[in-house]
Design brief:
Length: about 200
């Protein structure tokens, strides 16, 4: 139990800063692109959809790490903006990771810039690929809701309740087996190899 708790705490420390920065920037981009004001500075991370999926993924040692931003609105356009924002942050993480490989920390100091840039790349890759799932608040889900089939979906299946499904998925091995193994992990492996090649 103590060893498990130590692993979870270390992972939480490792993931927290890149995740919080990513979600805050995604909502900021969403606000700018949709001309909707952000109620307060911590709005992006001030709901259960951010923390419960993240803690579930870390507690059960899952490969895919996910956390939902507190969105300003729903719809195909807004969800596509969020998906694109995660893609851009993944690219930024890739460039920072490549840079960090070429600029090592002084001897004796932990290479936090190396790990945080890698987490920035990986987390946003997970989130961009998560939009392939037909769930509310995600691009595929909003596309489904905009069709005639969307009228048959229960009204409680909306963006404010989607965090429940996402938390269950984050705790289960389904995301790793389906989306992770087929899309996320191969792309991440290729990006990591490309970053190493660029740093040489």
């Amino acid at each position: 139990m103590e060893e498990w708790l130590n692993i979870v705490i270390r992972q939480l420390i490792l993931y927290s800063l890149p995740v919080l920065i990513s979600l805050t920037l995604v909502v900021l981009i969403e606000s700018r692109m949709s001309n909707r004001p952000i109620p307060h500075p911590f709005y992006a991370i001030s709901w259960r959809g951010t923390w419960l999926p993240l803690l579930a993924a870390l507690a059960f040692h899952r490969g895919m790490i996910i956390a939902l931003p507190n969105t300003l609105a729903s719809g195909v356009k807004i969800s596509s903006i969020r998906c694109l924002a995660h893609g851009l942050l993944c690219l930024l993480g890739f460039l920072l990771f490549s840079w960090s490989l070429a600029h090592q920390m002084p001897t004796g100091l932990p290479p936090l810039h190396h790990w945080w840039s890698k987490v920035l790349m990986f987390f946003n890759l997970c989130m961009a690929c998560l939009h392939l799932l037909p769930l509310p608040g995600l691009l595929a889900g909003e596309l489904l809701l905009s069709t005639r089939w969307g009228e048959k979906i229960p009204v409680y299946f909306n963006i404010k309740h989607g965090w429940i499904v996402i938390t269950v998925l984050a705790a289960s091995p389904l995301l790793d087996l389906l989306l992770g193994a087929s899309v996320v992990f191969p792309i991440y492996e290729w990006m990591s190899s490309a970053a190493i090649a660029m740093a040489r």
